[in-house]
Amino acid sequence: MLIPELHIPTDFITDDHIGREKLLAYFANLKKTKTLIFALCIQGRIKVTINLVQYNIGSGTVIAIPTNSFIQVVKASEDIQMRAILFSLRFIHEAHLDKSIIDTFYIINEHPLLPLPGKIFNIYTDTFSLLGKIYRDAPFLFSRATLKSILEALLQGFTELSQRKALLKVAPPDKQSFIFRQFVRLVQEHHVQQHQVQFYAAVMGLKPTQLCHIVKKKSEGQTAMEIINNVLILNARTLLRATSTPVKDIALNLGFNNASFFNKFFKKHVGMTPQQFRNAEK
């Protein structure tokens, strides 16, 4: 059993009325995105985990979440109001984006949050609202060519605003950054079957010591094994919270040979047994 995935049935979806109830309905439990998400926080605050990093987000912030990301809303204020635009993974693959646009995915992978100045925030608010109105009242206006232009504009705008605010240096990823992101993607794909660093190093054509050195440097101190374990724990917590699957079956589904070893592993990292965690969440 894998982490639940977030798909959309069409190329493009907008939603300009996202409150606390809807937000938690989708993301209270860990999800893996099969969409590219642009979200705008209009008011309130949320605490969200994106690819193992926790962010506190307030009003006036635009968020870009790449496909194949892990996302979970940890906490949302009662007055939270957000707007969102989503593009399907299939559309992104078929859009044949220019290389300069593809390079912007590096930026949103590294820096998914962008606080907006007041006037720019108002422009984004109006833009998200307009796209939402067209989506509801005249969806035939969204041809694939139009959607590609909207996607490129959102990606390019995110990049240019980041440069203007000097929040980050926009540069092509260096080799070690590429290796680190490749490792994280592989862990997201294979953590159920493969728990050892040696497997990922072999797939990437590296020695385990090389991979461990790069991961620790690029993750600001986390080891490769810690990242694998963190993904396993995220998956386990989600399955314990969101399903009634017996603990022994969750252990097997996550690649553990027996429930006893899984119990010890979970307690070491969470501070309680899987069953205690499940009971505490009720």
Automatic annotation (TrEMBL):
Q: Any idea which UniProt keywords this protein has?
A: DNA-binding, Transcription, Transcription regulation
Which PROSITE patterns does this one have?
A: HTH_ARAC_FAMILY_2
Query: Listed GO molecular functions?
Result: DNA-binding transcription factor activity; sequence-specific DNA binding
**Domain HTH araC/xylS-type: residue ranges:** 181-280
Per the UniProt entry, what species is this protein from, by scientific name? Bacteroides oleiciplenus YIT 12058
Protein name, entry field: HTH araC/xylS-type domain-containing protein
